[in-house]
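Reminder: ligand-aware prediction takes two inputs, not one.
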Amino acid sequence: MDTPEVDELQPPDRTMMGPGPSEVHPRVLRAMATPLVGHLDPAFVEIMDEVQELLRYVFRTDNQWTLPVSGTGSAAMETAIGNLVEPGDGVLLRTNGYWGDRMAQMAERAGGEVVSLPTDANEPIPVADVERAFAEADIDVVGVCHADTTTGIRQPNVAELTEIAHEHDAYVILDCVTSLGGVPVEVDEWGVDVAYSAAQKCLSCPPGVSPLTVSDRGMEKVLGRETDPRSWYLDLSLLEGYWGEERAYHHTAPITNTYALREALRIAAEEGIEARWARHERVAGDLVDGFADLGLSMNPPAGLSLASLNAVEVPEGVDDGAVIDHLREEYGIIVASGLGGLDGDIWRIGCMGYGAREKNVTYVLEAFADALAAQGYAPAERATPL
Ligand code: PLP
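Here is what comes back for the chain with pyridoxal-5'-phosphate:
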């Protein structure tokens, strides 16, 4: 067999404005180039404590059970569902949404019985739908996506949904993958039982470790299970041995990714979480306004938009894929097309973490104007901004 000859790694220079991964902060990249210590080294144990403290800060929680899961957002999602859902539990989800469908697949693998919400895939879940579902079925766990990366819609009423669930002794799992660190998330104030996220969105960190937080009440259910969760790797009662008091070996933590997350969270804390939310809101507002000047409209109804993920409608006669290619080839800008039911109907433009800067907004808008003109598109009347 010939020895493979592979050139030195030289990825192209991209402006990452898609649904994730987002542009990684240079400080985070530098942190990743620092020497490794072992996963049980007292110095690393100190780093673990710091990461947990910083995670509590961005999640706005005092939850003791707050840790980064080794793996991407889906691993954190599976940790949440696989530990909280026991065989036979009723799990209420919006199965016609992309992320609700993924949650449903995981809930079924955990032995749960999925109850589907009838809510339109392109709308947030209304309180009435959840109340009706509780009146009609036995539900133990409710799964909600806070920031829908496919539609660009924000779930505005998490605290109300949690209240209904708690009135029925049920638990709420919140997907904050596209909101944590960019859009207000209030785990304690909203009474969320389990929330999880990912590193590669508004925290501007490479994918690989994913934030998770579990309330004491949620953890009581997890520790009181009659059967073990099906995954050994993601079993929270075992992970406690490593991330809890004992600090004993469970698996070899991804050291470099943990360094990266620590630095990303440190940057968030330096900026201040509220100031960070305000920056995302301001920068995304300018982006939306710029699209309105180009005669383009947004997918989310007024008041439900998501600063971190801007879903722009593709105008009649424009080929969404050709625009995406033009942005990448001529400008090095990465944006994405729609997923699932919205394929061909929207572009998804991230405004996340380090990428949420005025400079990027100006660049993206100029590039879009050029890409649209190349398609023969001429802006009509200015669309109404959100
Ligand atoms: N949940 C939401 C809302 C997401 O947007 C994503 C990924 O984009 C995930 C879960 C899954 O995360 P990952 O791709 O990091 O596994």
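Residues 19-20, 72-74, 77, 99, 145, 149, 175, 177-178, 198, 207 surround pyridoxal-5'-phosphate (CB under 6 Å). The chain has two domains: 26-270, 273-373. We will return to this case in the review session.
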